[in-house]
Every structure is written in C-alpha cells, then in structure tokens.
Amino acid sequence: MAKHRLEQPNRGSKVAKRAVVAGSITVGSLAVAAGPALAAPVHVPNIGTFELPGVDSQQIPQQFQEPKQVAPQAAPVTKSPGASVEIPNIGTFTVPGLNDDQIPQEFKPKGGGGFLGVQPTVAQKAVSNAESKIGSPYSYGAAGPNAFDCSGLVYWSYKKAGKTIPRDSYGQLGGGTPVASIASAKPGDVLIFNGGGHAGIYAGNGKFVHSSTYGTPVQKDNVNNWDLTGIRRY
Q1: Cβ–Cβ under 8 Å, residues 113 and 106
Q2: From CA 161, how far away is CA 34, in angstroms rounded?
Q3: Which of 17, 18, 143, 191 has an alpha carbon within 20 to 30 A of 177's alpha carbon?
Q4: Is the pLDDT of residue 222 over 90?
Q5: Which residue positions does the secretion signal occupy (predicted)?
Q6: Is the pLDDT of residue 210 over 70?
Q7: Quick one: pLDDT at residue 56?
Q8: Which DSSP string do the residues of 140-191 spell out, in sequence order?
Q9: Neighbour-count burial for 84-112, b at 16+ CB within 10 Å, e otherwise
C-alpha cells in the first residue's frame, strides 16, 4: 500500500497532462474544450499549472486560478541628513550621512581646526596668520606682532606658521620656488610687486594680504591693482 500511495501524485500529473494534450480537462464542474483563440492557466494543487487552450481566464473557478505572486515591498528609503564641515583655508562642505551633533566643535563652520586628521599646510597657515592681522597699522621696519611693513607681514606670517623665510622683499623675491603666473598661484605664495620693493601673501581668488604704507592698515587687495614682478612659493 505504501508503494501505491507514493505513485498516486505522479499518476494524477500524467492524467492531467494527457487531458490537456487531448484537448479538454474537467475543473470542478467546468468542462472546457480546446480552442485556438484563448489560453488560460489553471492551477491543480499538488500537480501543477497548465495552459488550457480556448479558455478565458475569467472562466476558471477561483480555487483553480494560478496563485498570484506578491512582489516583496522595498524598504522605505530614508535620506541621510547632511552636516556642514569647515576645512580651514579651503571651504565649507556638506557631508551626507552626518548630523550636526556628530561634528566636533573645531570642525564646525567658523570653528577652525583640521578635517579628519588633515592639517593645514604651512602656506595655508601663513595666509590665516596674515588675515588675522587685517586692520593692524603699517610701520616701516616692523615685523609684528602689532605693526608691520610689507615684507615684515610676510616674514611674520610664515615664521608663526613654523617656517623662516628672508626678511626683506628683495630677499623674498630671490628665495623659494618661482611660480610662472598668477593663474598658477596658490594661497600662501609670496607676491612681489614694483620691481621687488613691495611684498604680500596671496589669499586666492585674485586677492592678496599686505601692509602697504603709513596711514593704511593691513588689508586684502586685488592683485590686478598692483604691478606684479614675481611669485615665489615657500
């Protein structure tokens, strides 16, 4: 008997398939004949799903209709928030996936500091040092910390950044590495004007910081307003 029961499903499948091939099958009380115009799937539990020629799918009883496959729903996508991070002397950027409370205070805009362990270069520090003295008075022969002449500001800014460069503008023109043009200049490059008589520090975007003359405090000015002689990179 056990062997007979095991063979029953295979026998049923063969009968159903032979019925389809012969051109008709009885589903419940519905008898359908083969026809060329239509074909509907009929699902026989534990046997399989078969195409019935000449049958509209609406004629198939509900319990014998092919089970509908339910597509899995995608998980809702949540947009990660973004937080602003300031890289000194470079700019402020939005970092996706971070919240403001995840950003250390020193990396927040106007907070200063480095970004993910990257520290500003000596040249970038020199620019920041020069900019910190905007408004300080001019004084011939002075090299800070409260008053400056032109080359004195450049010298002090680099020394405070950890690098000693020549003290006067002619020496600054003769040192470092030459830069071909202002288009190739980077923040921190030393700009020499008027044949060597004046110096300043390039701040980027066509601007430089300098201490020009008595009565005019340290300021940021346009490079194009001056007669550029040379550019040196330290």
Answers
A1: yes
A2: 92
A3: 143
A4: yes
A5: 1-39
A6: yes
A7: 72
A8: TT-BSSS-B-HHHHHHHHHHHTT----SSHHHHHHSSEE-S-GGG--TTPEE
A9: ebbbbbeeeeebeeeeeeebeeebbeeee
Q: Reduced to 3 states, what is the DSSP secondary structure of residue 138?
A: strand
Pair of tokens at residue 17: 């398939």
Indicate which residues carry an active-site annotation. 150, 198, 210
Coil/strand/helix, residue 3? helix
Nearest CA to 19 out of 50, 54, 40, 58 is that of 50
Tens of pLDDT, residue by residue over 138-189, are 999 999 999 999 999 999 999 999 999 999 999 999 999 999 999 999 999 9
Residue 37 to residues 64, 77, 93, Cα–Cα distance (Å): 21, 45, 65
The two beta strands, 91-96 and 82-87, are antiparallel
For residue 217, the 8-state DSSP code is: -
Strand pairing category for 177-178 and 228-233: antiparallel
Where in 14-121 does DSSP place strands (E)? 24-27, 30-33, 39-44, 48-53, 82-87, 91-96
What pLDDT does residue 104 have?
A: 72
Tokens for 183, please give them: 């288009």
Token code pair at residue 205: 């975007």
pLDDT of 35 higher than 90:
no
3-state secondary structure of 18: helix
Residue 19 has pLDDT above 80, yes or no: no
Phi/psi of residue 169, each to 5°? -65, -35
